[in-house]
């Protein structure tokens, strides 16, 4: 798989004129299905945005429409764009997730994740910080990019770092509300025990998702080629085999960068005439108008705008929990409280 573009992106670029017209037709179909939303929120209903939702749902307009509608419902309730640094700063103190100050060679934003540096116990707080970092990474994407790269550092990681509840919540948010945002995931120096864990997880992921994941080891020259192809080694951190920033994560510096971005986003929102009350009212009104266009028979989902994502889990995740138990993975009791009632439709790719 090319590190530059995903397989789906390359395939779309090589489509015939007829196939390209068909893709455009499917985009138009989605736009018709969500007509009130497409007029009210052009940024979220642009051709490129709709195409991401279509790719995540195998170019099925009805499924993509439903997914986009649910994403906008979630944004109405969760307001991810309004999360600011002060809300999540305590979650960031150890550098468990942060945006790197360098892109990859193709201009994509890089998110560094260090699961072994977990410093809080609140699932809600951890997911809120993840959402904040995702929003910031998207904000910093180059104009010609819509995907990012994840660099996952396994320093300090043990099986005790695994929380099934957080894993499930993370998958739910990333797959359902940020579809096709992941270009590549680099797992750097995962311990042997993680390889066993990965074998358990892999069958429950969509093929297009796990194909984006690469294992890289510092003592394996062949796998190190991935890093040199993807990054400028002079800008990459020593943790990942680079020569930049030998002192590692600097919380104060990162805080300054995030505050600067927050201020820029605030100015952009104000200049666009957005406000919490007017935006919420407009979105709620548009969603109500689109109810009859998407899943008219499913009234229970349509009334769940304010429901928590902790109430959502796929059959895949339920089977994932069972498999973890079979393999003797220990989990916290609080991770299993809601498992019995968690049954909704299958999640698809990130």
Automatic annotation (TrEMBL):
Ranges of Low complexity composition bias in the record: 303-314
PROSITE patterns: CRAL_TRIO
Pfam families registered for this protein in UniProt: CRAL_TRIO (PF00650), CRAL_TRIO_N (PF03765)
Biased composition (Basic and acidic residues): 318-350
Gene Ontology MF: a single term: phosphatidylinositol transfer activity
Cited InterPro entries: CRAL-TRIO_dom (IPR001251), CRAL-TRIO_dom_sf (IPR036865), CRAL/TRIO_N_dom (IPR011074), CRAL/TRIO_N_dom_sf (IPR036273), PI_Transfer_CRAL-TRIO (IPR052578)
Residue numbers spanned by region Disordered: 291-350
UniProt xrefs under SUPFAM superfamilies: CRAL/TRIO domain, CRAL/TRIO N-terminal domain
Ranges for domain CRAL-TRIO: 85-248
Protein name: Patellin-5
The species this protein was found in: Apostasia shenzhenica
Upper taxonomic lineage: Eukaryota, Viridiplantae, Streptophyta, Embryophyta, Tracheophyta
């Amino acid at each position: 798989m090319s590190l530059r573009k995903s397989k789906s992106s390359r395939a779309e670029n090589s489509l015939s004129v007829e196939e390209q017209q068909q893709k455009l037709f499917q985009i138009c179909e989605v736009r018709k299905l969500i007509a009130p939303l497409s007029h009210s929120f052009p940024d979220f209903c642009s051709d490129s945005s709709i195409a991401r939702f279509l790719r995540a749902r195998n170019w099925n307009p009805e499924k993509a429409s439903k997914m986009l509608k649910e994403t906008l419902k979630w944004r109405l309730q969760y307001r991810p764009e309004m999360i600011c640094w002060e809300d999540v700063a305590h979650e960031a103190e150890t550098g468990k997730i942060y945006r790197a100050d360098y892109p990859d060679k193709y201009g994509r934003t890089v998110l560094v994740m260090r699961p072994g540096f977990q410093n809080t116990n609140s699932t809600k707080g951890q997911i809120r910080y993840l959402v904040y970092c995702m929003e910031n990474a998207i904000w910093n994407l180059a104009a010609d990019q819509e995907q990012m790269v994840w660099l996952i550092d396994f320093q300090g990681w043990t099986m005790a770092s695994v929380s099934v509840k957080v894993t499930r919540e993370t998958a739910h948010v990333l797959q359902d509300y940020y579809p096709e945002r992941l270009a590549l995931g680099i797992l750097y120096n995962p311990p042997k025990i993680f390889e066993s864990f990965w074998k358990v997880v892999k069958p429950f992921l969509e093929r297009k998702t796990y194909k984006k994941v690469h294992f890289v080891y510092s003592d394996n020259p062949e796998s190190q080629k991935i890093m040199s192809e993807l990054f400028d080694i002079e800008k990459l951190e020593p943790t990942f085999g680079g020569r930049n920033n030998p002192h590692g994560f600097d919380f104060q510096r990162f805080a300054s960068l995030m505050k600067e971005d927050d201020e820029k986003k605030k100015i952009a929102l104000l200049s666009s005439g957005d406000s919490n009350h007017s935006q919420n009212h407009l979105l709620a009104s548009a969603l109500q108008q689109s109810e009859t266009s998407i899943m008219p028979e499913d009234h229970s989902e349509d009334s769940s705008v304010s429901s928590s994502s902790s109430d959502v889990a796929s059959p895949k995740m339920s089977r994932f929990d069972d498999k973890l138990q079979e393999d003797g993975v220990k989990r916290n009791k609080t991770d299993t409280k809601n498992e019995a009632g968690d049954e909704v439709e299958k999640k698809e790719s990130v």
